[in-house]
Protein backbone atom coordinates (compact mmCIF):
# COMPACT_ATOMS: atom_id res chain seq x y z
CA UNK A 1 0.00 0.00 0.00
CA UNK A 2 1.45 3.36 -1.03
CA UNK A 3 1.22 6.49 1.07
CA UNK A 4 0.77 8.60 -2.06
CA UNK A 5 0.74 12.36 -2.41
CA UNK A 6 -0.86 13.35 -5.69
CA UNK A 7 1.18 15.80 -7.74
CA UNK A 8 -0.55 18.61 -9.55
CA UNK A 9 0.00 19.16 -13.27
CA UNK A 10 2.99 21.50 -12.98
CA UNK A 11 4.63 19.25 -10.39
CA UNK A 12 4.11 16.34 -12.77
CA UNK A 13 5.92 18.15 -15.57
CA UNK A 14 8.77 19.10 -13.26
CA UNK A 15 9.11 15.50 -12.11
CA UNK A 16 9.16 14.08 -15.64
CA UNK A 17 11.76 16.63 -16.74
CA UNK A 18 13.92 15.66 -13.75
CA UNK A 19 14.10 12.02 -14.80
CA UNK A 20 17.26 10.76 -16.41
CA UNK A 21 17.51 9.45 -19.94
CA UNK A 22 18.81 5.94 -20.47
CA UNK A 23 22.50 6.64 -20.02
CA UNK A 24 23.71 3.09 -19.47
CA UNK A 25 23.92 0.35 -22.05
CA UNK A 26 20.47 0.04 -23.67
CA UNK A 27 18.26 -2.67 -22.22
CA UNK A 28 14.60 -3.58 -21.85
CA UNK A 29 15.22 -5.37 -18.57
CA UNK A 30 13.98 -2.56 -16.30
CA UNK A 31 10.75 -1.77 -18.19
CA UNK A 32 10.03 -5.47 -18.74
CA UNK A 33 10.32 -6.28 -15.05
CA UNK A 34 8.40 -3.17 -14.03
CA UNK A 35 5.49 -3.97 -16.34
CA UNK A 36 5.53 -7.58 -15.19
CA UNK A 37 5.10 -6.38 -11.60
CA UNK A 38 2.19 -4.17 -12.72
CA UNK A 39 0.39 -7.14 -14.26
CA UNK A 40 1.26 -6.36 -17.92
CA UNK A 41 -1.45 -3.74 -18.59
CA UNK A 42 -0.11 -3.31 -22.14
CA UNK A 43 -1.33 -6.82 -22.94
CA UNK A 44 -4.97 -6.10 -22.03
CA UNK A 45 -5.68 -4.54 -25.44
CA UNK A 46 -4.41 -5.26 -28.99
CA UNK A 47 -1.92 -2.85 -30.53
CA UNK A 48 -0.36 -1.64 -33.75
CA UNK A 49 3.35 -0.80 -33.44
CA UNK A 50 5.04 1.72 -35.77
CA UNK A 51 8.75 2.47 -36.20
CA UNK A 52 10.79 4.33 -38.82
CA UNK A 53 13.14 7.25 -39.34
CA UNK A 54 10.56 9.55 -40.91
CA UNK A 55 6.80 9.26 -41.24
CA UNK A 56 6.05 7.07 -38.24
CA UNK A 57 4.14 9.77 -36.39
CA UNK A 58 2.04 10.61 -39.45
CA UNK A 59 1.35 6.91 -39.98
CA UNK A 60 0.19 6.57 -36.37
CA UNK A 61 -2.07 9.61 -36.77
CA UNK A 62 -3.64 8.12 -39.91
CA UNK A 63 -4.15 4.76 -38.21
CA UNK A 64 -5.76 6.46 -35.23
CA UNK A 65 -8.13 8.48 -37.38
CA UNK A 66 -9.26 5.57 -39.56
CA UNK A 67 -9.81 3.30 -36.57
CA UNK A 68 -11.90 5.97 -34.84
CA UNK A 69 -13.89 6.49 -38.03
CA UNK A 70 -14.71 2.77 -37.77
CA UNK A 71 -16.23 3.48 -34.33
CA UNK A 72 -13.40 1.89 -32.33
CA UNK A 73 -12.13 3.31 -29.03
CA UNK A 74 -8.49 4.15 -29.75
CA UNK A 75 -5.50 5.04 -27.61
CA UNK A 76 -2.61 6.81 -29.36
CA UNK A 77 0.92 7.25 -28.00
CA UNK A 78 3.31 9.49 -29.94
CA UNK A 79 6.29 11.79 -29.55
CA UNK A 80 7.77 14.28 -29.43
CA UNK A 81 5.20 16.70 -28.11
CA UNK A 82 5.19 20.22 -29.51
CA UNK A 83 3.49 22.43 -26.93
CA UNK A 84 2.28 20.21 -24.08
CA UNK A 85 3.25 16.80 -22.74
CA UNK A 86 -0.41 15.76 -22.91
CA UNK A 87 -0.14 15.54 -26.71
CA UNK A 88 1.65 12.21 -26.36
CA UNK A 89 -1.42 10.48 -24.92
CA UNK A 90 -4.62 10.61 -26.97
CA UNK A 91 -7.88 8.83 -26.25
CA UNK A 92 -10.43 8.95 -29.05
CA UNK A 93 -8.68 11.91 -30.63
CA UNK A 94 -8.36 14.02 -27.49
CA UNK A 95 -5.24 14.52 -25.33
CA UNK A 96 -5.31 13.35 -21.74
CA UNK A 97 -6.68 15.93 -19.30
CA UNK A 98 -4.24 17.65 -16.94
CA UNK A 99 -5.76 16.24 -13.76
CA UNK A 100 -5.88 12.69 -15.05
CA UNK A 101 -2.31 12.97 -16.33
CA UNK A 102 -1.14 14.12 -12.89
CA UNK A 103 -3.04 11.34 -11.11
CA UNK A 104 -1.55 8.60 -13.29
CA UNK A 105 1.92 10.11 -13.01
CA UNK A 106 1.64 10.35 -9.21
CA UNK A 107 0.72 6.70 -8.90
CA UNK A 108 3.45 5.58 -11.28
CA UNK A 109 6.02 7.75 -9.55
CA UNK A 110 5.41 5.91 -6.28
CA UNK A 111 5.60 2.57 -8.03
CA UNK A 112 8.72 3.50 -9.99
CA UNK A 113 10.58 4.80 -6.97
CA UNK A 114 9.58 1.74 -4.95
CA UNK A 115 10.77 -0.43 -7.84
CA UNK A 116 14.11 1.40 -7.86
CA UNK A 117 14.58 0.83 -4.14
CA UNK A 118 13.89 -2.88 -4.49
CA UNK A 119 16.02 -3.25 -7.62
CA UNK A 120 19.08 -1.14 -6.96
CA UNK A 121 20.86 -2.63 -9.96
CA UNK A 122 18.14 -1.28 -12.27
CA UNK A 123 16.87 1.84 -10.53
CA UNK A 124 13.59 3.69 -11.23
CA UNK A 125 12.17 4.23 -14.69
CA UNK A 126 13.87 6.61 -17.08
CA UNK A 127 11.82 9.48 -18.49
CA UNK A 128 10.70 7.69 -21.68
CA UNK A 129 9.99 4.46 -19.82
CA UNK A 130 7.89 6.50 -17.41
CA UNK A 131 5.90 8.09 -20.25
CA UNK A 132 5.40 4.70 -21.89
CA UNK A 133 4.16 3.23 -18.62
CA UNK A 134 1.65 6.09 -18.33
CA UNK A 135 0.34 5.28 -21.81
CA UNK A 136 -0.01 1.59 -20.97
CA UNK A 137 -1.86 2.37 -17.74
CA UNK A 138 -4.07 5.04 -19.32
CA UNK A 139 -5.21 2.86 -22.21
CA UNK A 140 -5.74 -0.21 -20.03
CA UNK A 141 -7.75 1.83 -17.53
CA UNK A 142 -9.92 3.22 -20.33
CA UNK A 143 -10.39 -0.24 -21.86
CA UNK A 144 -9.51 0.86 -25.37
CA UNK A 145 -10.40 -1.38 -28.29
CA UNK A 146 -6.93 -0.88 -29.75
CA UNK A 147 -3.73 1.05 -29.05
CA UNK A 148 -1.50 2.64 -31.69
CA UNK A 149 2.09 3.17 -30.57
CA UNK A 150 4.92 5.15 -32.12
CA UNK A 151 8.44 3.98 -31.31
CA UNK A 152 10.42 6.68 -29.54
CA UNK A 153 13.93 5.92 -30.82
CA UNK A 154 15.21 2.93 -32.75
CA UNK A 155 13.06 -0.03 -31.83
CA UNK A 156 14.96 -2.95 -30.39
CA UNK A 157 15.51 -1.32 -26.99
CA UNK A 158 12.68 1.20 -27.13
CA UNK A 159 10.39 1.05 -24.10
CA UNK A 160 7.37 0.46 -26.34
CA UNK A 161 8.93 -2.83 -27.41
CA UNK A 162 7.50 -4.59 -24.36
CA UNK A 163 4.20 -4.64 -26.24
CA UNK A 164 3.24 -8.27 -26.81
CA UNK A 165 -0.39 -8.20 -27.95
CA UNK A 166 0.57 -6.75 -31.33
CA UNK A 167 -1.65 -7.28 -34.39
CA UNK A 168 0.75 -5.82 -36.97
CA UNK A 169 4.06 -4.00 -37.18
CA UNK A 170 4.90 -1.11 -39.51
CA UNK A 171 8.33 0.28 -40.38
CA UNK A 172 7.82 3.38 -42.49
CA UNK A 173 11.27 4.35 -43.73
CA UNK A 174 14.90 4.11 -42.71
CA UNK A 175 17.54 6.78 -43.24
CA UNK A 176 20.65 8.00 -41.46
CA UNK A 177 19.58 9.76 -38.27
CA UNK A 178 20.52 9.46 -34.59
CA UNK A 179 23.72 7.81 -35.86
CA UNK A 180 25.46 8.42 -32.51
CA UNK A 181 22.97 5.99 -30.95
CA UNK A 182 21.68 3.67 -33.68
CA UNK A 183 24.76 3.26 -35.87
CA UNK A 184 26.21 5.03 -38.88
CA UNK A 185 25.04 2.72 -41.67
CA UNK A 186 21.59 1.98 -43.06
CA UNK A 187 22.06 -1.69 -42.19
CA UNK A 188 22.81 -0.92 -38.53
CA UNK A 189 19.83 1.40 -38.20
CA UNK A 190 17.56 -1.11 -39.93
CA UNK A 191 18.77 -3.79 -37.51
CA UNK A 192 17.68 -1.63 -34.55
CA UNK A 193 14.31 -0.66 -36.00
CA UNK A 194 13.49 -4.20 -37.11
CA UNK A 195 13.91 -5.22 -33.48
CA UNK A 196 10.18 -4.55 -32.94
CA UNK A 197 9.19 -7.44 -35.24
CA UNK A 198 7.37 -10.14 -33.26
CA UNK A 199 7.10 -13.84 -34.00
CA UNK A 200 4.32 -14.50 -36.48
CA UNK A 201 3.13 -10.87 -36.51
CA UNK A 202 2.79 -9.43 -40.05
CA UNK A 203 5.10 -6.59 -41.07
CA UNK A 204 4.41 -3.73 -43.48
CA UNK A 205 7.25 -1.50 -44.65
CA UNK A 206 8.03 1.23 -47.15
CA UNK A 207 11.78 0.62 -46.86
CA UNK A 208 13.85 -0.55 -49.79
CA UNK A 209 17.40 -1.65 -50.56
CA UNK A 210 19.62 -2.71 -47.67
CA UNK A 211 17.03 -1.65 -45.10
CA UNK A 212 14.37 -3.86 -46.65
CA UNK A 213 16.81 -6.77 -46.81
CA UNK A 214 17.50 -6.49 -43.07
CA UNK A 215 13.79 -6.27 -42.24
CA UNK A 216 13.08 -9.36 -44.36
CA UNK A 217 15.96 -11.23 -42.70
CA UNK A 218 14.65 -10.56 -39.20
CA UNK A 219 11.06 -11.25 -40.23
CA UNK A 220 12.08 -14.60 -41.71
CA UNK A 221 13.84 -15.48 -38.46
CA UNK A 222 10.57 -14.78 -36.59
CA UNK A 223 8.22 -16.45 -39.08
CA UNK A 224 6.58 -13.11 -39.88
CA UNK A 225 5.22 -12.20 -43.30
CA UNK A 226 6.39 -8.96 -44.94
CA UNK A 227 4.47 -6.70 -47.28
CA UNK A 228 6.56 -4.10 -49.10
CA UNK A 229 4.50 -1.05 -50.10
CA UNK A 230 5.46 1.88 -52.32
CA UNK A 231 4.00 4.48 -54.64
CA UNK A 232 4.79 3.91 -58.32
CA UNK A 233 4.53 6.95 -60.62
CA UNK A 234 2.72 4.97 -63.31
CA UNK A 235 0.98 2.13 -61.45
CA UNK A 236 0.06 3.99 -58.26
CA UNK A 237 -0.04 2.18 -54.88
CA UNK A 238 1.92 -1.08 -54.94
CA UNK A 239 1.91 -3.93 -52.41
CA UNK A 240 4.37 -6.78 -52.81
CA UNK A 241 4.92 -9.82 -50.57
CA UNK A 242 8.62 -10.38 -49.82
CA UNK A 243 10.53 -12.84 -47.68
CA UNK A 244 10.17 -16.54 -46.98
CA UNK A 245 6.78 -16.44 -45.28
CA UNK A 246 4.21 -16.50 -48.05
CA UNK A 247 0.97 -14.56 -48.19
CA UNK A 248 -2.05 -16.38 -49.63
CA UNK A 249 -2.93 -14.81 -52.96
CA UNK A 250 -6.57 -14.35 -51.99
CA UNK A 251 -5.59 -12.45 -48.84
CA UNK A 252 -3.18 -10.19 -50.74
CA UNK A 253 -5.76 -9.58 -53.46
CA UNK A 254 -8.30 -8.53 -50.83
CA UNK A 255 -5.81 -6.13 -49.24
CA UNK A 256 -4.89 -4.61 -52.59
CA UNK A 257 -8.54 -4.18 -53.53
CA UNK A 258 -9.39 -2.54 -50.21
CA UNK A 259 -6.45 -0.13 -50.47
CA UNK A 260 -7.30 0.84 -54.04
CA UNK A 261 -10.97 1.37 -53.17
CA UNK A 262 -10.02 3.58 -50.23
CA UNK A 263 -9.07 6.49 -52.53
CA UNK A 264 -5.85 8.02 -51.17
CA UNK A 265 -6.84 11.28 -52.85
CA UNK A 266 -9.09 11.96 -49.87
CA UNK A 267 -6.09 12.24 -47.50
CA UNK A 268 -6.11 15.59 -45.69
CA UNK A 269 -2.33 15.56 -45.21
CA UNK A 270 -0.44 17.06 -48.14
CA UNK A 271 2.58 15.80 -50.05
CA UNK A 272 3.62 12.57 -51.77
CA UNK A 273 5.37 11.39 -48.60
CA UNK A 274 2.05 11.49 -46.74
CA UNK A 275 0.35 9.42 -49.42
CA UNK A 276 3.12 6.86 -48.92
CA UNK A 277 2.51 6.97 -45.16
CA UNK A 278 -1.21 6.47 -45.77
CA UNK A 279 -0.43 3.42 -47.90
CA UNK A 280 1.64 1.99 -45.04
CA UNK A 281 -1.17 2.73 -42.57
CA UNK A 282 -3.93 1.13 -44.63
CA UNK A 283 -1.84 -1.92 -45.45
CA UNK A 284 -1.03 -2.28 -41.75
CA UNK A 285 -4.71 -2.14 -40.79
CA UNK A 286 -5.63 -4.77 -43.33
CA UNK A 287 -2.62 -6.95 -42.54
CA UNK A 288 -3.69 -6.90 -38.90
CA UNK A 289 -6.83 -8.81 -39.87
CA UNK A 290 -9.11 -5.84 -39.34
CA UNK A 291 -12.18 -5.72 -41.52
CA UNK A 292 -11.63 -5.34 -45.25
CA UNK A 293 -15.13 -3.93 -45.57
CA UNK A 294 -15.05 -0.56 -43.78
CA UNK A 295 -14.06 1.44 -46.86
CA UNK A 296 -16.35 4.29 -45.86
CA UNK A 297 -14.55 4.50 -42.52
CA UNK A 298 -11.21 4.55 -44.33
CA UNK A 299 -12.32 7.41 -46.58
CA UNK A 300 -13.68 9.42 -43.68
CA UNK A 301 -10.61 8.70 -41.59
CA UNK A 302 -8.22 9.80 -44.32
CA UNK A 303 -10.16 12.99 -44.98
CA UNK A 304 -9.95 14.25 -41.39
CA UNK A 305 -6.40 13.57 -40.20
CA UNK A 306 -4.92 16.46 -38.24
CA UNK A 307 -1.22 16.06 -37.54
CA UNK A 308 0.32 19.38 -36.45
CA UNK A 309 3.78 20.45 -37.47
CA UNK A 310 4.00 18.02 -40.37
CA UNK A 311 3.60 19.95 -43.62
CA UNK A 312 0.94 22.02 -41.89
CA UNK A 313 -0.23 24.87 -44.10
CA UNK A 314 -1.74 27.98 -42.52
CA UNK A 315 -3.15 29.91 -45.50
CA UNK A 316 -4.03 33.11 -43.67
CA UNK A 317 -0.49 33.41 -42.35
CA UNK A 318 1.06 32.15 -45.62
CA UNK A 319 3.08 29.84 -43.40
CA UNK A 320 4.04 26.15 -43.50
CA UNK A 321 5.21 24.25 -40.41
CA UNK A 322 7.25 21.07 -40.86
CA UNK A 323 9.54 19.24 -38.47
CA UNK A 324 11.97 17.96 -41.14
CA UNK A 325 15.26 17.48 -39.30
CA UNK A 326 17.35 15.18 -41.51
CA UNK A 327 18.16 14.86 -45.22
CA UNK A 328 15.38 12.35 -45.89
CA UNK A 329 12.83 14.60 -44.22
CA UNK A 330 14.14 17.57 -46.19
CA UNK A 331 13.74 15.65 -49.46
CA UNK A 332 10.12 14.89 -48.56
CA UNK A 333 9.42 18.49 -47.58
CA UNK A 334 10.91 19.95 -50.76
CA UNK A 335 9.03 17.46 -52.91
CA UNK A 336 5.77 18.41 -51.21
CA UNK A 337 6.47 22.13 -51.60
CA UNK A 338 7.29 21.78 -55.28
CA UNK A 339 4.19 19.63 -55.90
CA UNK A 340 1.63 21.72 -54.05
CA UNK A 341 3.06 25.22 -54.39
CA UNK A 342 4.87 25.13 -57.72
CA UNK A 343 4.01 28.78 -58.47
CA UNK A 344 5.37 30.08 -55.18
CA UNK A 345 8.73 31.18 -53.88
CA UNK A 346 9.89 30.20 -50.41
CA UNK A 347 11.59 31.79 -47.45
CA UNK A 348 12.76 29.21 -44.93
CA UNK A 349 13.13 29.90 -41.21
CA UNK A 350 15.49 27.28 -39.87
CA UNK A 351 17.08 26.16 -36.63
CA UNK A 352 18.52 22.68 -36.24
CA UNK A 353 20.31 20.69 -33.59
CA UNK A 354 24.07 20.39 -33.47
CA UNK A 355 24.13 16.60 -33.94
CA UNK A 356 22.22 16.70 -37.25
CA UNK A 357 23.56 16.46 -40.81
CA UNK A 358 22.91 20.12 -41.52
CA UNK A 359 24.80 20.16 -44.79
CA UNK A 360 22.85 17.18 -46.12
CA UNK A 361 19.56 18.60 -44.91
CA UNK A 362 20.09 22.05 -46.44
CA UNK A 363 21.40 20.53 -49.65
CA UNK A 364 18.16 18.58 -50.02
CA UNK A 365 15.90 21.46 -49.02
CA UNK A 366 17.25 24.66 -50.52
CA UNK A 367 17.50 25.76 -54.14
CA UNK A 368 19.20 28.78 -55.74
CA UNK A 369 16.94 31.79 -55.36
CA UNK A 370 15.32 30.66 -52.11
CA UNK A 371 15.54 32.96 -49.11
CA UNK A 372 16.43 31.59 -45.69
CA UNK A 373 16.77 33.10 -42.22
CA UNK A 374 18.73 31.12 -39.65
CA UNK A 375 18.47 31.38 -35.88
CA UNK A 376 18.90 29.19 -32.83
CA UNK A 377 15.76 27.92 -31.12
CA UNK A 378 15.35 28.31 -27.38
CA UNK A 379 16.16 24.78 -26.24
CA UNK A 380 18.41 23.00 -23.79
CA UNK A 381 19.90 20.92 -26.59
CA UNK A 382 22.94 22.35 -28.41
CA UNK A 383 21.98 23.92 -31.74
CA UNK A 384 23.95 24.18 -34.95
CA UNK A 385 25.71 27.59 -35.22
CA UNK A 386 23.55 29.84 -37.38
CA UNK A 387 26.58 31.45 -39.02
CA UNK A 388 27.79 28.06 -40.24
CA UNK A 389 24.31 27.28 -41.59
CA UNK A 390 24.39 30.56 -43.52
CA UNK A 391 27.72 29.60 -45.10
CA UNK A 392 26.21 26.34 -46.35
CA UNK A 393 23.19 28.16 -47.77
CA UNK A 394 25.40 30.70 -49.55
CA UNK A 395 27.23 27.90 -51.36
CA UNK A 396 23.87 26.55 -52.57
CA UNK A 397 22.89 29.97 -53.89
CA UNK A 398 20.14 30.72 -51.40
CA UNK A 399 20.05 34.20 -49.93
CA UNK A 400 20.86 33.78 -46.23
CA UNK A 401 20.45 35.98 -43.17
CA UNK A 402 20.97 35.26 -39.48
CA UNK A 403 19.28 36.54 -36.35
CA UNK A 404 19.24 35.64 -32.68
CA UNK A 405 15.70 34.28 -32.26
CA UNK A 406 12.93 32.46 -34.10
CA UNK A 407 10.59 35.34 -33.40
CA UNK A 408 12.88 37.81 -35.18
CA UNK A 409 13.59 35.30 -37.95
CA UNK A 410 9.87 35.04 -38.66
CA UNK A 411 9.53 38.82 -38.65
CA UNK A 412 12.40 39.20 -41.11
CA UNK A 413 11.03 36.48 -43.37
CA UNK A 414 7.51 37.87 -43.48
CA UNK A 415 8.51 41.53 -43.74
CA UNK A 416 10.24 40.93 -47.06
CA UNK A 417 7.81 38.34 -48.42
CA UNK A 418 6.28 38.99 -51.80
CA UNK A 419 2.74 38.10 -52.83
CA UNK A 420 3.81 34.71 -54.19
CA UNK A 421 6.16 33.76 -51.34
CA UNK A 422 5.43 31.38 -48.48
CA UNK A 423 7.35 31.16 -45.21
CA UNK A 424 8.43 27.66 -44.16
CA UNK A 425 9.47 27.07 -40.52
CA UNK A 426 11.50 23.88 -40.33
CA UNK A 427 14.81 22.23 -39.38
CA UNK A 428 13.64 20.76 -36.08
CA UNK A 429 10.54 20.32 -33.99
CA UNK A 430 12.02 23.00 -31.74
CA UNK A 431 11.63 25.42 -34.66
CA UNK A 432 8.03 24.33 -35.15
CA UNK A 433 7.25 24.58 -31.45
CA UNK A 434 8.62 28.08 -31.12
CA UNK A 435 6.83 29.22 -34.27
CA UNK A 436 3.54 27.95 -32.83
CA UNK A 437 4.25 29.91 -29.66
CA UNK A 438 4.94 33.03 -31.74
CA UNK A 439 1.51 32.53 -33.28
CA UNK A 440 0.01 32.58 -29.80
CA UNK A 441 -1.03 28.93 -29.68
CA UNK A 442 -1.50 27.39 -26.24
CA UNK A 443 -2.14 23.89 -27.58
CA UNK A 444 -1.63 22.28 -30.98
CA UNK A 445 -5.40 22.07 -31.31
CA UNK A 446 -5.39 25.86 -31.67
CA UNK A 447 -4.13 25.28 -35.20
CA UNK A 448 -7.09 23.22 -36.37
CA UNK A 449 -9.17 26.23 -37.38
CA UNK A 450 -6.16 27.86 -39.09
CA UNK A 451 -5.19 24.84 -41.15
CA UNK A 452 -6.61 24.22 -44.59
CA UNK A 453 -6.38 20.46 -45.19
CA UNK A 454 -7.80 20.68 -48.68
CA UNK A 455 -4.88 22.46 -50.36
CA UNK A 456 -3.27 19.70 -52.37
CA UNK A 457 -2.87 18.52 -55.94
CA UNK A 458 -3.03 14.75 -55.94
CA UNK A 459 -3.62 12.46 -58.87
CA UNK A 460 -3.13 8.78 -58.08
CA UNK A 461 -3.79 6.31 -60.90
CA UNK A 462 -5.83 3.41 -59.60
CA UNK A 463 -4.13 0.47 -61.23
CA UNK A 464 -3.70 -3.14 -60.06
CA UNK A 465 -0.94 -3.81 -57.57
CA UNK A 466 2.60 -4.11 -58.90
CA UNK A 467 2.87 -7.37 -56.96
Describe the structure.
The protein is of the alpha/beta class. The protein folds into two domains: 9-303, UDP-N-acetylmuramoyl-L-alanine:D-glutamate ligase (3-Layer(aba) Sandwich); 312-447, Protein-Tyrosine Phosphatase, Chain A, CATH 3.90.190. It is built from 16 helices and 15 strands. The chain has helices at residues 9-18, 29-37, 56-69, 98-118, 127-141, 179-182, 186-193, 209-221, 249-262, 272-287, 295-303, 327-340, 358-365, 386-396, 406-415, 429-438; strands at 47-51, 74-77, 89-91, 94-95, 146-150, 166-171, 203-205, 226-232, 236-242, 312-314, 319-321, 345-350, 371-374, 399-402, 421-426. The strands form two sheets. It has a nine-stranded mixed beta sheet, with helices on both faces. A six-stranded mixed beta sheet has the order 10-11-15-12-13-14, sandwiched between helices. α7 packs parallel to α8 and α13 (358-365) packs across α14 (386-396).
Summarize the structure.
This protein has 16 helices and 15 strands. It has 467 residues and is α/β, with parallel strands linked by helices. The strands form two sheets. It has a nine-stranded mixed β-sheet with strand order 4-3-2-5-1-6-7-8-9, with helices on both faces.
Keywords:
about 475 residues, UDP-N-acetylmuramoyl-L-alanine:D-glutamate ligase, Protein-Tyrosine Phosphatase, Chain A, 2 domains, nine-stranded mixed sheet, six-stranded mixed sheet, 16 helices, 15 strands, about 40% helix, about 15% strand, disordered C terminus
The total beta strand count reads 15
Q: What's the helical proportion of residues?
A: 25-40%
Structural class: alpha/beta
The largest β sheet comes out as: 9 strands, mixed
Number of helical runs? 16
Write the CATH homologous superfamily of the largest domain: Mur-like, catalytic domain
Cα(first) to Cα(last) distance is 58 Å
Beta-strand share of residues: 5-15%
Q: Please compute the radius of gyration using only Cα atoms.
A: 22 Å
**Strand arrangement, major sheet:** 4-3-2-5-1-6-7-8-9
CATH architecture of the largest domain: 3-Layer(aba) Sandwich
CATH class of the largest domain: Alpha Beta
Mean pLDDT equals 90
Total domains, how many? 2
CATH topology of the largest domain: UDP-N-acetylmuramoyl-L-alanine:D-glutamate ligase
Q: Quick one: overall form?
A: globular
Low-confidence stretches: 453-467
Amino acid sequence: MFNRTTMNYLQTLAYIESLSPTLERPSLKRIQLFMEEQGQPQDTFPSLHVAGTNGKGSTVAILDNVLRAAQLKVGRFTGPHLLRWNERFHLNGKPIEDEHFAELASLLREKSEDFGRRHEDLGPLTWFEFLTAIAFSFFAEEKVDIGVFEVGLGGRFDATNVLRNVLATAITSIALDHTHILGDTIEQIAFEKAGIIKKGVPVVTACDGAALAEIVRQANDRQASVRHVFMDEQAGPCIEPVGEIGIPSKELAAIVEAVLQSDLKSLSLGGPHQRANALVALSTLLSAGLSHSFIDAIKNGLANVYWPGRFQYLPNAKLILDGAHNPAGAVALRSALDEQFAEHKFCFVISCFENKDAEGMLGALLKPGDRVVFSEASTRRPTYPKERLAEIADKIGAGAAVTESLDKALSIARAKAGEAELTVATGSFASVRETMQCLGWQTVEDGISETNPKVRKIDICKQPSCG
